[in-house]
Structures are given as C-alpha cells and as structure tokens.
Specification:
Elements: E1 2-4, H1 5-12, E2 42-48, E3 53-66, E4 69-76, H2 84-90, E5 93-97, E6 100-108, E7 119-128, E8 136-149, E9 152-172, E10 177-198, E11 201-221, E12 225-236, E13 253-266
Antiparallel strand pairs: 1-13, 2-3, 2-13, 3-4, 4-5, 5-6, 6-7, 8-9, 9-10, 10-11, 11-12, 12-13
Length: about 270
C-alpha cells in the first residue's frame, strides 16, 4: 500500500508533539519492525543543505547471500544519492535480526570537498536496536591509516560510535507526525597529523585535534523505516600558520548541517 504523508496526518491527529519532547523506556521484547525490507518497498526523501535541495528515491530490489547470510539490497532511482544515510544504506548490504538493523560494508567519510577519503569497515554493524537501553553503544570501530596528499603523509585516526538514543511515542518532522519512533546516532571522531622534515629531524605535527567531525542523528518509525536524518559536520584544523613554508592541503574548517526528510513511502506486503 502506498502512503502520502498527508494521509498519515489523519492517523496521527491529536498526537502531535515536538520531536523528542517525550521518551519512553525501551522494552526488552519490542517486536516492532523499524525498517521493513520487503521486496519493492520504497521511500522518497527531500534532502536539504545550506546551498541546495535534492531528492532521493530509495527502494528494495533484491537479496544477496554473503558468507551464508542473506542480506537485502537497496538502491536509488538517482545515479548518486544526495543524503548521507541513503548513501550508507544503498552502498552496503542490510538485514533485520531480532529487531536490529544490521549493515555490512563500509562507512564513507566526511562529506566535505577536499577532505581525505575515509572508508571504515562495517562488519555486521548495528544501526539501531529498539530493545537496547537508552545510551547503549551498539558499535565502537577504531582504526588508522595514512594517505599521501600533495607529498604530505597524512595520518588519520578514527573512532566511529553508534548509540541507541531513545524511544519516542511520537516524533514530528517539518511535514508529519509519526508514532512509535526510535532514535540512534552515528558519531565519527577524527584525529589527523602529519610528519615534516626540519634540519634532518622528522617532526610529528597535529593537524586536527581529536574532534567529533561528523554526527548523524537518525529517526526510524515502526513499520515505515527512516523518517528523518540530520547530519552535522563541524571541525577546525590546528593553526600552523607560524611554520614557514607549511601549507596543509585540507579545508581549514567547516560547519554545516544537512537533513533528509521522508515525503512518501510504500511498504510492500
């Protein structure tokens, strides 16, 4: 059955509240499905950022076996997805297990032009768990790698944490109120340094102190899926202007917010 968000208004009349105003204690036997993955189900989103608006039309188009486990393939009608979470879901494999949404693949990096490419392995990482207590860390993924950018060795250390945040009796976006909603967050912390030669000595210089560079807040409604996602990028590099001849080939700072809001959906039987 296909739904528009106007039709949902009738179902939720009288339940309107500000998103996140009320929380409930999660039940250890919550059997609701917060991301249905039946074949031919689809979701349409409007993506908004400071300088542009775009659309994502995501749909289920099949399943795939990986190491003896069956996953679901999601895709978009668009060549490239505009929203961060739609990109994460469609570029990887997903499955439901005991109420959890699990993703297998990789987490892309910071959506800032000129920032180093980052790929964090997601080995059956949990995106949400409605039966977990509020504040439970579902995944902690750490690692480091080195890239050469304009002859500079750039050492990047990362920590990605996914947290189950809260269960909400209702949640309101710009256009609609949903009932029985869970929130989970993804936080990407980065620390970046480089090495320079000074008088025959190798010095390690901090480029980016440990900062939560990317925070993604996701809201999932029972029997619907992802209804709203907010992505915040916020960082500032160290001031290395006092070192003669040193020019770091990275954007010095960025503070930006992007959102993806569900506008319509169809959950196949």
């Amino acid at each position: 059955m296909k739904y528009s968000l106007l039709s949902l208004t009738i179902l939720t009349l009288g339940l309107i509240s500000c998103g996140g105003d009320d929380t409930t204690t999660p039940s250890s036997n919550n059997s609701a499905t917060y991301f249905p993955l039946s074949l031919n189900s689809s979701w349409s989103y409007t993506n908004e950022s400071e300088d542009q608006t775009s659309q994502d039309n995501m749909f289920v188009f099949g399943t795939q076996q990986e190491n003896g486990v069956q996953y679901t393939n999601l895709d978009t009608q668009e060549l490239n997805s505009g929203g961060f979470m739609v990109g994460l879901l469609t570029q990887n494999l997903v499955r439901n297990e005991n109420g959890k949404l699990i993703v297998n693949g990789a987490l892309g990096g910071v959506p800032v032009e000129g920032f180093p490419d980052i790929s964090i392995p997601l080995n059956n990482a949990v995106l949400f768990d409605p039966n977990a207590l509020n504040g439970t860390q579902l995944n902690i993924i750490t690692g480091s790698f080195e890239e050469i950018i304009m002859d500079f060795p750039i050492i990047i250390e990362y920590t990605s944490i996914t947290t189950q945040e809260q269960v909400l009796p209702s949640y309101t976006t710009d256009t609609q109120t949903y009932t029985d909603v869970i929130q989970s967050n993804i936080v990407l912390n980065l620390e970046i340094s480089t090495e320079v030669q000074v008088g025959g000595t190798t010095l390690s210089l901090p480029i980016l102190s440990s900062q939560d560079v990317l925070v993604v807040e996701n809201y999932y409604a029972a029997n619907i899926g992802l209804v709203y996602s907010k992505e915040t990028v916020d960082y500032a590099l160290e001031d290395l202007s006092g070192i003669p001849g040193l020019e770091i080939p990275l954007p010095e700072q960025n503070t930006s917010t992007s959102t993806a809001t569900l506008t319509s959906f169809e959950i196949a039987n």
